């Protein structure tokens, strides 16, 4: 932009300029650089509206610097600056030092620009909204193991491979269904009732006659109490020569059937530790039996208390409820189900209000009411359920005779998991590990990638052989388009940018002001250092 000239060549030179276009004299008498304020573009019809608005700032680059005037700024000039409502233009050079009039002018210009920005935002609210360009739809990636139709047309032998893939998908679907069925079955595993035989006996050592004086370095007399259990199998014969049969790994170990085991010794003979307690919750690993070893040469009776570990938990029914259902120990769910079957069989449900049932004389002994709501059944039944009774055993520790003495057997009914449960869990664990299948899939995927690469090379050379000129031109155009996309110039039109009309659009002035305001203060409008 020329300095000292008229920016509008069509304007009449004799007409007076507005106050913001007039030159002001510097103290030296030479005319100062004119401050030409560009008119803000019409934003309503521009597709670039809202993109070049710079927020107001107190940076010196956005202030209007007036030349050092002999008289301070008049109120008329401040009012004219406030009513301009357009962003300021950066001067070509920074003045040496600000004055009070310059500070007042900068404050008024900032307020004016803020009002102009707010007005432009309100005016543009109904304009054209800029939306991001729609993304190009990516090509759907084919599965790594599947051959496309173009490759299948070139390789007739690939039909057999496609059939194998379909067969593999059917096998995978069948395995997935079976896996889900097994997982559902393992959530509520079926239980079988078996007989647990408990063997209780004791052994002893160094229980010879006492001699006076006792021999030196002789081992003290000791005894050992052993409690071992085995699950009996139907139709299995026991070896009469052995006291305890071998453990079957299909069934749980002996300690898993009990929650707590308590062994009470004679407190007069063992006052320090007469009570021995084992708890399943504190046990690190299941055991096949228990053994208690002590020093002593006197016989006594040991009391053994076994508390069963039921899964799910079982309860002992009260006497009135036991008379109604005919069971002594059972789970809460089975007790409620048995009560419902009893009410259904006796037709005790109230026909007018199905949420209630009538109590017959047997149920009156249990609940003490003539009728009861079904929703209260689970709550009212809790007072009739207690802890199952423990198993109390007595064993006399004998310290004479040969071998194990006082051997006794006790049979207890226990619930054991279904024998195939471990095999089902092992099957699920094996299905999770497909190392061989994964290795084969990797080989197949690598082969498919090679086939795709050879197909692309074949298509390249085939297209070149059929029409070399058209093929090269199409390839150059494609590469040029890709290069523009990478460089971010896909939306540019070089031919339009060469025309002068391109730079006469409404957004150009605002873009120039934004560009000048973003440049460092030490540079002039031409890019060099300010004078």
From TrEMBL:
Residues 89-98 have a biased composition (Pro residues). Gene3D superfamilies: SWIB/MDM2 domain (1.10.245.10). InterPro entries: SWIB_domain, SWIB_MDM2_dom_sf, SWIB_MDM2_domain. Residues 310-387 form the DM2 domain. Residues 1-101 are annotated as: Disordered. Residues 1-31, 70-86 have a biased composition (Low complexity). It holds the Pfam family SWIB. PANTHER family: SWI/SNF-RELATED MATRIX-ASSOCIATED ACTIN-DEPENDENT REGULATOR OF CHROMATIN SUBFAMILY D (PTHR13844). This is DM2 domain-containing protein. It comes from Eragrostis curvula (weeping love grass). The lineage of its organism: Eukaryota, Viridiplantae, Streptophyta, Embryophyta, Tracheophyta.
